[in-house]
Write a structure and sequence with these properties.
By secondary structure, the protein is mostly helical. It is built from 30 helices and 8 strands. The strands form 4 sheets. The protein has a two-stranded antiparallel sheet with strand order 1-2. A two-stranded antiparallel ribbon has the order 3-4. A hairpin with a 2-residue loop joins strand 7 and strand 8. Helix 10 packs antiparallel against helix 26 and helix 10 packs across helix 29. The protein is globular and about 90 Å long. The protein starts with 17 loop residues before the first helix and ends in a 23-residue tail after the last strand.
Length: 729
């Protein structure tokens, strides 16, 4: 037998090695399908063959060009818009610096263990979410389909936010910025400030009227907003072009889309620290309020933020890790990406509150000037006595401290008449206590602060370009969570599927760029992902620990990583994480039941928001979103349990190796052909190499050499294998 021979792929070799001919000649001559397969056996003295060289599946599946590219992809997916506009809000709302304590505890209890679990199963089985859970138990294959549905729902409205950012980015190349001042309205007699803007603010008016041209209710469509429609189309074109070649194209873009936001955040932090009042914002942010930390609501919101910050349940984590080598240290990746995500959130919080502190300082100065003028008028009219004003006070250049001193004196002296004087307490803390999040933070509060920056257009361009890149990084993972499982399962061309997916999403996404579109974004954000993803991750945990078996999974990890993971993960996966997730699910359901379902509608005449309840059809849509997202789980279970679809494949066979004998066995493959050789004809099924050490003895079967599940997991069905991962559920 020739030395250094390897597995021959794709075409039959006419000159089959003699020893293989002898083996094949012992088989049934009528077995045409088996004879089409080809096998070459390595010399026993040949060195170990790496998994990437030993199988067709490994060679055909794309792989990351480098470890850095993979880490950047995972960081880009997990670090998104929520780190910039959700985490700072929660930190401010839930005790400042004290909020970091429950967040870190929950990161260690549910964040890192569940992130490690998803990385492990993706790398171990090398398939997308559908294939992974179908491989563990065909009856739980619906978990992967549910992940795909949730990813699609989220992608629909998430790309709309990228479109909004693109619009603001395009409008930032002008000085002054278009949202710097309220517009003037001219009529035949005189010019006046736009009433809607005068009642709110310049940035608020620009967001609701110029950008969204928003309607007054969900039921009032108002037609398409053509500016946002073009921006949405541009966003989907960017996503499609980046994803059309899978990780081969998106991986290269990750170097920019994942790293650029950090450059911008550091620039903003340095610039922000040089601004007057920035330290007041940071001090306010991280002043711990320990009494708030003990409230259950704080822990619930911290757990929810940990859960969504890492992208658990979406399938993107599994999809990205499925392109890794099997011996990659995914435990290190899980810890690294989790803490990068955490420190990014802290960095973004520093930036946000440095800038908001500067903004609060400007507003406070205006407040001091306006109220000082009121005091001067009251002194002139005799309503206030000059004797109560300290001698060192100079109203022409009064400081905030001096004003507050005068304010306190007047309040004590004129206790009964004080309310009628119309004076306001000008405290920076009062302004910083006004919690804002989401679009209110990015497109109103932060945007207003940047108008006061020197070279404001430059900082505006940088900020919204950062938002675009943060959004795209998350979108790549979300779309990969849809494309990879479907390509693995149904063997369709990735390029065609990507284009179709983006086209369909764009046309459905037109509901978000009508004048009432912002209300639909709120609806999808509140109802399409939260509960379904919690259920998905709970089922993922159960599938690995109960169906597949936690002991077997730990053995696979040892075989795959080269070392035994800490027993900490054993207890987290088996006991603690499922319990915490169930508590979080119950708390989320209770919170959803107690909170009246509705949205904040913009009232043009009042120049403010007003809470509206969803109409009946809106409630039906909300419920439908949750039901549709989780519906694949029971459907697939029932179909597989009752054998409603006969998907057995008589043409597929498993090849077993037993002391040199080749045994051909017909296989009735249950599931959707997502094991690692499903969907191939017998001639396409790769034959494993007989390297010296790449197979290990199966327990209880001393005469059988088989490929270890943990290192290969490539789905060869071996004879008498009691520990195949397909469950008998």
């Amino acid at each position: 037998m020739p030395k250094n021979s390897k597995v021959v792929k794709r075409e039959l070799d006419d000159e089959v090695i003699e020893s293989v001919k002898d083996l094949l000649s012992n088989e049934d001559s009528s077995d045409d399908a088996f004879k089409k397969s080809e096998l070459m056996v390595d010399d026993q003295e040949e060195k170990d063959v790496d998994v990437e060289e030993g199988s067709d599946v490994e060679d055909e599946r794309p792989a990351w060009n480098s470890k850095l590219q993979y880490i950047l992809a995972q960081v880009g997916f997990s670090v998104g818009l929520g780190n910039v506009w959700r985490f700072p809000y929660l930190c401010q709302k839930n005790g400042g610096g004290a909020y970091l304590v429950p967040y870190l505890i929950l990161l260690l209890i549910i964040g890192i263990p569940l992130f490690f679990l998803e990385l492990s199963v993706g790398q171990r089985i090398r398939r997308g979410s559908i294939g992974v859970w179908n491989y563990i138990s065909p009856k739980l294959g619906g978990i992967g389909f549910a992940s795909c549905v949730v990813c699609f729902f989220v992608a629909l409205y998430y790309n709309v936010i990228i479109g909004w950012s693109l619009f603001y980015f395009s409008q930032s190349f002008q000085h002054p910025l278009p949202w710097d001042q309220c517009p003037l309205v001219k009529n035949t007699s005189h010019t006046f400030v736009e009433p809607e803007c005068e009642k709110s603010s310049a940035t608020t008016y620009y967001w609701y009227r110029e950008a969204l041209n928003i309607s007054s209710s969900l039921s009032e469509s108002g037609g398409l907003n053509w500016k946002m429609t073009i921006c949405l189309l541009a966003a989907w074109v960017m996503v499609c072009l980046a994803m059309i070649k899978g990780i081969q194209s998106s991986g290269k873009i990750m170097y920019f889309s994942s790293l650029f936001p950090y450059v911008v955040l550091l620039c903003f932090l340095i610039r922000g620290l040089l601004l007057n009042g920035s330290l007041d914002g940071i001090r306010h942010m991280f002043t711990p309020k320990l009494e708030i930390m003990l409230e259950p609501k704080v822990w619930r919101e911290a757990a929810t933020q940990v859960f969504f910050a890492l992208g658990l349940g979406f399938g993107g984590v599994i999809a990205f890790s499925s392109y890794n080598k099997r011996d990659n240290n995914c435990h290190f990746d899980a810890v690294l990406v989790s803490f990068i995500n955490f420190f990014t959130s802290v960095l973004a919080t520093l930036v946000v509150f440095a800038v908001l502190g500067f903004k609060a300082n400007i507003i406070n100065e205006k407040c001091v000037i306006q109220n000082s003028e009121k005091i001067l008028k009251l002194l002139k009219t005799g309503n206030l006595s000059q004797d109560m004003i300290p001698h060192h006070i100079n109203f022409s250049s009064i400081t905030a401290e001096d004003y507050n001193l005068v304010y306190d004196i007047i309040q004590k002296v004129k206790e009964e008449e004080f309310d009628s004087l119309g004076l306001k307490s000008c405290q920076i803390e009062d302004e910083l206590d006004k919690a804002v999040q989401g679009t209110g933070l990015a497109f109103i509060a932060f945007t207003e602060a940047m108008t006061h920056f020197p070279a404001a257009p430059f900082w505006s361009v940088m900020f919204f370009l950062m938002l675009v890149n943060l959004g795209l990084g998350s979108m790549f993972g979300t779309i990969e969570g849809i494309i990879t499982p479907i390509v693995d399962t149904f063997k369709v061309r990735k390029e065609i599927l990507t284009v179709i997916c983006c086209l369909v999403a764009f046309f459905i996404g037109l509901i978000f760029v009508q004048r009432s579109g912002n209300y639909f974004v709120t609806m999808f954000d509140d109802y399409s992902a939260t509960l379904p993803l919690l259920i998905v991750v709970i089922l993922e945990n159960i599938a690995v620990t109960r169906i597949y078996g936690i002991e077997k999974f730990m053995e696979d990890l040892k075989d795959m990583l080269g070392f035994s993971p800490s027993q900490y993960y054993y207890y987290m996966w088996k006991y603690v994480s499922p319990l915490v997730l169930l508590c979080l699910l119950v708390a989320s359901i209770v919170q959803m039941g107690l909170s009246p379902p509705g949205y904040n509608a913009w009232i043009e005449d009042m120049g403010t928001e007003e809470f509206h309840s969803y109409p009946t059809w809106g409630m039906i849509v909300c419920i439908s979103l949750m039901v549709l997202a989780i519906l694949p789980v029971p459907i697939v279970f029932i179909v597989r349990r009752c054998n409603l679809i006969d998907d057995s494949s008589g043409s597929l066979a498993s090849v077993s190796y037993k002391r040199g004998r080749i045994i051909k066995e017909p296989v009735n493959l249950e599931g959707d052909n997502t094991s690692l050789i499903h969907g191939k004809s017998p001639s396409e099924v790769p034959s494993p190499n007989f390297g010296k050490n790449i197979y290990r003895k199966q327990t209880g079967s001393p005469t059988l050499d088989t490929a270890p599940n943990g290192r290969y997991g490539i789905g060869y069905l071996m004879a008498d294998m009691p520990d195949m991962p397909e469950s008998d559920l």
